Structure formats: C-alpha cells, structure tokens
Amino acid sequence: MTMTPSSASAVPLAEAAAGGNHRMLTIGLFVGFVAVTLVITVWASRHNRTANDFYTGGRSFSAAQNGLAIAGDYMSAASFLGIAGLISLVGYDGFLYSIGFLVAWLVVLMLVAELVRNCGRYTMADVLAFRMSRRPVRTAAGASSIVVSILYLVAQMVGAGSLVALLLGDGHGSAQTVTIVVVGALMIVYVTFGGMKGTTWIQIVKAGLLMAGAVLLTVLVLVRFHGDVNAMLHTAAQTSGKGESFLRPGLQYGTSLTSRIDFISLALALVLGTAGLPHILVRFYTVPTARAARRSVMWAIGLIGAFYLMTIALGFGAAAVLGSDEIRASNAAGNTALPLLARELGGGGDSLGGVVLLAVIAAVAFATILAVVAGLTLASSASAAHDLYASVIHKGRASEKEEIAAARLSAIVIGAVAIALSLSAQKLNVAFLVALAFAVAASANLPTILFTLFWRRFNTRGTLWAIYGGLVSSVVLVVFSPVVSGGKNPLVSGVDFHWFPLENPGIVSIPIGFLCGWIGTMTAKVPADPSKYAEMEVRSLTGAGAY
C-alpha cells in the first residue's frame, strides 16, 4: 500500500497522541498508588507508640500477611522487569536467575527462619550478639547491614529513575533525577511515620498488585497462542534470531570455563545471600511465634514460586510476540520487555487498550520499587538506631523514646545518603550493586549467622573476622573485577586495572567469610561460653524465652 503524505504525517501524530495519553495515565496511576500508600502510612503512624511497634509492627501480623509482605519485599523491580527481560533476550539462561532466587528460600526455610525468630528481637545483630561480646559484634553487624541495605537502595532507586524515564519518554534525564528524589522522599516518609506496620501493609498491597499484573499478562500471552506453550516457545526461538539455541543453555554464559564459573559464583551469591539480607531477616520478627515465621516463609515460597513460573510465559512470550530485536532496541538490558508486551497485548501503541495496559504495568513496577526501598530503609535505620546508637553508643541505657527518635533520624540520614549516591550514579551501570549486595550478605552475614547458631566453639573474634573478612573480600574483588574496569560495560572506561576474572565474587568471597570465621575462632585466646551456647540452642529450637 502506498502511503500518502497526509497519512504518513498522521502516523507519528497518532503515536505522539497515544504516547501522551499513556504518560498522563501512567502519572495518574503513580499518583493514585502514592496517595493510597500515604493513607496507609498516616493510619499506621497512630499505632507506633513503642520500639516494638516501630520495629516489628507489634508482632501482630499473621503468617499469611507476613508471607505476602515477604513476597512483596523480595520480588523487586529486578524480578518483575529484569528476569522477564533477560529471558526475552537470552532464553533459557535468563530463566536460571529465577531458579536461583527461588531455591534461596529453601535455605531460609530450613536454616534461618525459626531460629532467627527465636533468638533475636529486632535486628540480625540481636542474634549474633546473643552469646558474644556485644559492643564490637553489634558494631560489625550494624555496619554490614547498613552497607548491604544502601547498596541495594541505590540500585533500586537508580533503576526506578531509568524505568520511569523510559516509560515517560524522557531523553534528557530530568525524569530520572526527579524520580530518584521523589522515591527517596517517599521512603523516608513511609519509614519515619509508618514504621514496620505501615511498611508491611504497603508491601502487602504491592504484592497483590504484582501478582495480579503478572497473572493478567500470563493469561493474555497464553490466549494469544491458544494455550499452546510449545507454539509460544518455538515462535520465541524463531523471532529471537538464535534459533533452537534460544531454548538451550549457553547464550548468556557461553561455553568457556570462566563464564561457567562466573555463573556458579552468581548462583552461590543469590542462593546464599538471601538468608543474610537484613530487610528479609527483620520480617521474621513481625509475627508472634517461630511457627508463624516458618509458615510465613512457606507462604512466601508459594507466592514467589508461582511468580517465577509466570516469568517463563512472560519472558518467552515477549520474545515471541515482539521479537528480541525490538526489545533490545528499546532497552539493551531488556528491562522494558514487559511494558512493551503489555502495550502489544492490549492492542498496540495506538489503541486505548494498549495505552491502559502499559500504564497499569508501569504503575505496578513503580509500586514494586516503592515497597522494596521502604523495607530496605527500615532495616538499615533499625540497625543504626538499635545496634549502633542504643547498644554501642549508649551501652543499652537509651530509652525507647530516644531509640525511636534515633531510628527516624537514621531513616532521614540514610535516605539522604541514598538519594545523593543515586543521583551521582545515574549514568553508571548499577547491576554490580545488586550483585555486590548479595555477595556481601552471603560472605559476611550468612557465615556468622550459621556459625553462631550451630557451632559451639564460635566466639567473638571469629564473628568479627567473618563479618569483616567477608565484607572486605567481596568489595575488593568487585573493585578489581571486569565490572569496574576492562569488561564489556565497565563503570570506569578508558582504563583496565582488573585482575579478578569473574564479575561476581561469591565463589571466592563466601569461602573467605567462612574461613575467616574459623581462623578467628581457632586463634582466639578467650574461648566461647558453653553455657550461653546451651541457652541459645534451647531457645532457638524451642522458643523458650523468645520475645
């Protein structure tokens, strides 16, 4: 068909009008969700009278509610947008991320959930300091928790800015800057006024929206292919340009020994790091009993497992419906695959259905980011106030009122630091921050938790060596890895000072964390107190004396 000049000019005008409608609708949904979360925050602020209310929501949540909140906390924008986008670009290898994220919860369920709930009160440091010298251990644990949380915060906030800039069609970066500041300001408000109760309900609402959005897109994808999953997979393989290799391992990680070891390293960080993430650990204190903590993890596993199964349909469906080239042209990392898929399934960019569905999915992604950053800020401010201010600086003599005030001030300071770091990192590849957060959690936090719970001889020196050894080794190895210099998309261009060949340090730094804990314990002059270990063992297994 020959296109006349008038019809040719009508196409971009129609697209521009559709784009404008999409942006206005997206902004309207963003504002609507923010308004709902602020109402929740105001309601929750009326119930924050004690430290127990602020840190744990009064331990009043049921297992189902906490499971929803855990799922909402864990399924970040990286899960919703990143994994589906990665599957749409590299096929089978992208789904391996889903497996790592899901298997991690088996470690949490079997080794951490009940025991941490019985031994702790508000933070991870409560568990580690139970039978150790409290001040140095709380200092180390608090510092590690804050480092992990801030790394994760910066990654989420920069990702939020990039996502909103893409969805709103802003090519100058102003939307990204505004989004970072708005997200940072909102997370400070949520934590300062809402505490754990407000944060939890925001995460519950977000989890419901996320699951509803994922189910809707999955159903629409399957309807497009008349329920024939094989047809969808073969179409995805053809439109990917990779053929049947799209459905087999090797596209992302290749066949070289280094790439395979790098994948194993990443998998170790993902599987083991979850059990050491501070914002996940604090969720076990929001339920009344250890049994409820275990059941909440089972709820979370069910929800997270269902979600990651849907990422198969969403990722391969995006490749089949759109084609990998179109997705890559929009965003090289594939982060816009789901919004593009939603627009296409709704009827296309010039249709009302396409505009509405795209705006809804964009709003769900924004809600996902807000809920995650609220949980991260609360975990880091709790560590700063409860571990460092109340226990180390004031040696346990601070009143509850002073501690809550310190937690709120900490949320403001940490939020400001995260905003500043995110603004300076807008143009950088921040994928390494997520990998580093998981690697630090797996290298520094997990060894100390497991040794504390299960090794009778473990002592204060071993705890400090494990935390600092895992923290320093993971950071140093990333600094001298291809992620920072010498790689495909390095943080620092024009120079190459890397000597560590892997992008994720987990396969090296995690054993270093365990080894440092063992060496520190075996070389300590002051042995562990066997009576304190016996008390912890009884308490962790039975719940006797738990808060």
TrEMBL record:
<dbReference type="InterPro" id="IPR001734">
    <property type="entry name" value="Na/solute_symporter"/>
</dbReference>
<feature type="transmembrane region" description="Helical">
    <location>
        <begin position="137"/>
        <end position="155"/>
    </location>
</feature>
<feature type="transmembrane region" description="Helical">
    <location>
        <begin position="405"/>
        <end position="424"/>
    </location>
</feature>
<feature type="transmembrane region" description="Helical">
    <location>
        <begin position="95"/>
        <end position="116"/>
    </location>
</feature>
<keyword id="KW-0472">Membrane</keyword>
<keyword id="KW-1133">Transmembrane helix</keyword>
<feature type="transmembrane region" description="Helical">
    <location>
        <begin position="26"/>
        <end position="45"/>
    </location>
</feature>
<feature type="transmembrane region" description="Helical">
    <location>
        <begin position="430"/>
        <end position="453"/>
    </location>
</feature>
<protein>
    <submittedName>
        <fullName>Cation acetate symporter</fullName>
    </submittedName>
</protein>
<dbReference type="InterPro" id="IPR038377">
    <property type="entry name" value="Na/Glc_symporter_sf"/>
</dbReference>
<feature type="transmembrane region" description="Helical">
    <location>
        <begin position="355"/>
        <end position="379"/>
    </location>
</feature>
<keyword id="KW-0812">Transmembrane</keyword>
<feature type="transmembrane region" description="Helical">
    <location>
        <begin position="505"/>
        <end position="524"/>
    </location>
</feature>
<keyword id="KW-0769">Symport</keyword>
<feature type="transmembrane region" description="Helical">
    <location>
        <begin position="175"/>
        <end position="193"/>
    </location>
</feature>
<keyword id="KW-1003">Cell membrane</keyword>
<keyword id="KW-0813">Transport</keyword>
<feature type="transmembrane region" description="Helical">
    <location>
        <begin position="263"/>
        <end position="285"/>
    </location>
</feature>
<dbReference type="InterPro" id="IPR050277">
    <property type="entry name" value="Sodium:Solute_Symporter"/>
</dbReference>
<dbReference type="Pfam" id="PF00474">
    <property type="entry name" value="SSF"/>
</dbReference>
<feature type="transmembrane region" description="Helical">
    <location>
        <begin position="205"/>
        <end position="225"/>
    </location>
</feature>
<comment type="similarity">
    <text>Belongs to the sodium:solute symporter (SSF) (TC 2.A.21) family.</text>
</comment>
<feature type="transmembrane region" description="Helical">
    <location>
        <begin position="465"/>
        <end position="485"/>
    </location>
</feature>
<feature type="transmembrane region" description="Helical">
    <location>
        <begin position="297"/>
        <end position="322"/>
    </location>
</feature>
<feature type="transmembrane region" description="Helical">
    <location>
        <begin position="66"/>
        <end position="89"/>
    </location>
</feature>
